[in-house]
Specification:
single chain; 301 residues; mainly beta; three-stranded mixed beta sheet; 4 helices; 48% strand
Length: 301
């Protein structure tokens, strides 16, 4: 299969989501895109099965305070509309489980540049939290960990993107979908990868390549995808599979360290309004386990 280096400025097919205007028409509808995935990860030398969830949603954001604002004011120069991704992973190792969550906030009008990224890990041994902030001249990363020697703050005197932002930037939501130009960028590797491997954040240039379109089989059917490939580390390669037709969803991903995820279901919905007993049935449409049934009893699926 022929591969194309991203820096060549590859042309891609025009789609209904190929302009900023079309993007805002779609992503200002008061709903989020929620997708479920089967997940395999290697932990302690064995393959573990779990679930991943990706949530994409726009929300009002303060450029100075880097928080969601309660009341958006279009005339306030400090206010913008960010596209946020929440990326959750859940898996079990023996008697205890892991709950990992990454949030990335980006600016759609600036090529989905990262404003802020946070990460948290909860498991039976303890908790870890990290917070990454970017501006025009530097990037600040703060880590709070229950492990001795892991907490602290790093400042990079350049703009550094998190690898996790590729899950937003690769979709091409304002540039016609996968296959658009993504120049080599200084990035730090995935927060979840660093956490599970007790690695420090070291910026390195990540150069990615697109594959040609191909058919990809997942639980929801056969989807035409283009695959973005890059080196997470010198020894670990990752592939991110993006749906070619709109809305250019993340169909799955694989990494050579044993991580693999495949789409099981996807919905656009105001999930924050679906918090009553009985709303658990929505999880079935996403291919995710139902933990509590409407009568309050534990269920499976």
């Amino acid at each position: 299969m022929k591969s194309l280096i991203l820096t060549l400025g590859i042309a891609c097919a025009t789609s209904a989501f190929a302009t900023p205007k079309r993007f805002w028409q779609s992503w200002s509808d008061g709903r989020a895109e929620v997708s479920g995935y089967t997940l395999s990860v290697n932990r302690y030398g064995q393959t573990r099965q779990g679930q991943a969830i990706l949530i994409f949603v726009t929300e009002p954001f303060s450029m100075s305070r880097r928080v969601k604002v309660d009341r958006y004011d279009a005339e306030n120069p400090d206010h913008t509309i960010a596209l946020k991704m929440n990326y959750l992973k859940r898996f079990r190792t023996g008697v205890y489980d892991y709950a990992l969550m990454t949030s990335v906030f980006t600016i759609p009008g600036q090529g989905f540049k990262t404003l802020k990224a946070t990460f948290s890990s909860q498991e039976w041994c303890g908790q870890v939290f990290e917070n990454l902030m970017t501006d025009k001249t530097q990037t600040r990363l703060r880590i709070d960990s229950y492990f001795e020697g892991e907490s602290g703050q790093q400042t990079f005197d350049v703009m550094v993107e998190p690898e996790d932002a590729l899950w937003i930037q690769a979709r091409g939501l304002t540039s016609g979908g996968p296959g658009h130009t993504l120049p080599p960028t200084r990035r730090i590797s995935s927060a979840a990868h660093r956490r599970l491997n007790h690695q420090v954040a070291v910026p390195r240039t990540m150069t990615a390549r697109w594959s040609d379109p191909r058919a990809y089989q997942v639980a929801v059917g056969t989807v035409t995808v283009r695959t973005l490939s890059w080196q997470r580390t010198p020894r670990i390669k990752c592939d991110l599979h993006i749906e070619v037709p709109p809305p250019h969803r993340i169909i799955g991903w694989t990494c050579s360290d044993g991580e693999e995820a495949r789409l099981t279901g996807s919905l656009r919905m105001p999930y924050w309004n679906q918090a009553r007993l009985g709303d658990e049935h929505v999880l079935k449409a996403l291919g995710l386990p139902i933990q509590v049934s409407p009568d309050g009893k534990t269920g499976s699926k």
